[in-house]
Structure formats: C-alpha cells, structure tokens
Amino acid sequence: MDKLRALEYFIAAAQGASLSAAARRHGVSVAAVAKLISALESELKVQLLERRRNGVVPTAAGTSYLEACTPVLRQLTDAEQKISAGASQLEGTVVVGIQPIIAQEVLTAALPRFYALYPDIQLDVRHFMRPMPEQVQGVDIMLVMGWPKGAEELVHRQLGATTFIVVASPAYWAAHGIPKHPAELERHNCLCIRTNVGSVMDLWRFQRGDERVSVSARGRLVVDNVHRDMVRDLAVAGVGVARLLDWHQRPGGEVSRGLLLPVLGDWKPEDVPPINLLYPPRVRRIPRVRVFLDWVTQLFAEIEHERRRPYPATPMPRWLKSHLRRASATLETSAGTAG
C-alpha cells in the first residue's frame, strides 16, 4: 500500500465529505480512492470514515487521525514544493485577478508562505469582479466568489464554498437584545451590501431542519460591494447587524478577537456561494502559473478543513437571476403569486 497516497486520499475525502471529491482532486477514480482508504483502515484496524448516503464523515478515530496527520502532510508538501521550486528555478510573473474580499480575507495572510516557497515568482494582483472580456484579458488566474457567468472558454474549478454569519458587536447585542429567531432581525438595524450587478442583498434566508425563514433585512446603510469593509467596521463600532462571510471567524478575525459576536448559530444560511478558480487552458503549461494554481487549491482545501464540516455550495439564488433592485423583492413577488 502506498501509505502517503492513502493518507492524501483520506484527507481529501474528509475535507470534501465524499470519495468523489477526493477522486476529482487527485484525478483518479472513486474506486481507487475507496481501495486505498480501505487498506489504510485495515492497517490501522480502525474505521476512519463513516459512509453515508450523501457522502462520508470522519469517525471519532478518523477525526483524531486527521488532526494529527494534516499538519505533517502540509509540511511534507511544502518541503517538496520548495525543493521542486529550487530545482526548476521557477521565476517570472503570474497575473492574478481576484475579488477584493478574497484578497483581504484569505490571500494576503497566506502570501508570506507562498513567497517562502517561491521567492523568484512575482505576483501581479489585479482588481477583478466578473469574467468579462475586458477583465480576463492578460490575466493568468482568476479567483471569484459566487456564480460566474461568461466563463465558458475558461477552465473552471470549484475550490470550496463560504457561508454567512450574522454578527454585531457585544455592545450592540447588549443594548438591543440577541435574536433567538431569524424573524427577529426585522426589528434590528441591518447593514446591507449591494452586489456587483446592483442588487441589494437584503434577503437573508435561513434553514433549521425542515424549517425555512426568509428575512427582509432593513437598516440605515447600503454600500456597494467594493466598500463592504464599511459594513464590518460599523458593526464592530456597534452601529448595527451585519451578515458577513464566515472567514471572519478564522484565527485573527473579528469574531476570534471578540469584536463581533455571531448569533443564530443553530440556523444555516440557505445561500452558500462557491469559491471559483478560473484560468485559460493554455496557462496550465506555464510552470510558474501551474505552481500557483496548485498552491491556491491547497490553500482553500486547508480552509475547508478548518471548518470541520464543509459547506456544499448552493445553486444561484432566484433573486440573483432576476436582476432585482432588491433581493427582498422576491418575497413580494412570491406573496403576489400566492394571492
């Protein structure tokens, strides 16, 4: 048994919640993944993954093994990449188009690690929102959150997903009360963001078991996507309630530092946007671009692992397809249809 490969398959299956996710990541068949993981379980004499109808989840023993092995495998991967980088003398510029939210919340903190591995590669990072012809031209790699359109000629890989958390400052909750049910958000000052296509994201949808609730979020502030930091900063200042990406819960984020307090933790948001990697097929043949592709893929795999339970991306929501001025208008449309 190739134990290292078996370990890689196990970690990928656990992070992706399925054997097929591991197979896609490593470019092999599901049967090959299942065979090596079974061999690993036989050698360890424990069950690592519990097979369920909709995928797999780590057992208690599997979770412990995953936590112990993931850092070791990461160190080994970094060492291999560093040696390979030195051997191939990778150098030159990689042009990366990236949405500001991904750059701010994920890429910036991780880049020192990339530069330690590849000191002779320069990154030209450019503001990027949608795969439009004028933005794609001259860009090697694009990182986009959401449901991109117009990317038919590009290779499209989904790196994972992110989800939303409802937060406010501890002082705000102390003054206005912590909501126990999503419907109670309608009496709070909700700070909203406008999408890249001009729709205000004021429809906050939640699910708990079979119960679904849609909230029309109203407040005294709406900002364009490019100014979304204002929403975070005003929430920290105690002005109102924000719906932020769960990346803010990562180490060093506002939640971990106690500046923001999440609520409604037993409710799951219904809208879970994917994180997408887009690139022209030709650039995969360029060594410096290929190593960045592999590195950023691994970076988001680690983020998925941090969550312990991955969030499967959801299809594009109906309000986004409709190009409505406000997402909450779908509630009015539904009510009118029902009447």
TrEMBL record:
Transmembrane segments: none annotated. This is LysR family transcriptional regulator. Belongs to the LysR transcriptional regulatory family. InterPro entries: LysR-type_TF_proteobact-type, LysR_HTH_N, LysR_subst-bd, WH-like_DNA-bd_sf, WH_DNA-bd_sf. The keyword Transferase does not apply. SUPFAM superfamilies: Periplasmic binding protein-like II (SSF53850), Winged helix' DNA-binding domain (SSF46785). Keywords: DNA-binding, Transcription, Transcription regulation. It comes from Ottowia pentelensis. PROSITE patterns: HTH_LYSR. Pfam families: HTH_1 (PF00126), LysR_substrate (PF03466). It comes from the Bacteria. Residues 1-59 form the HTH lysR-type domain.
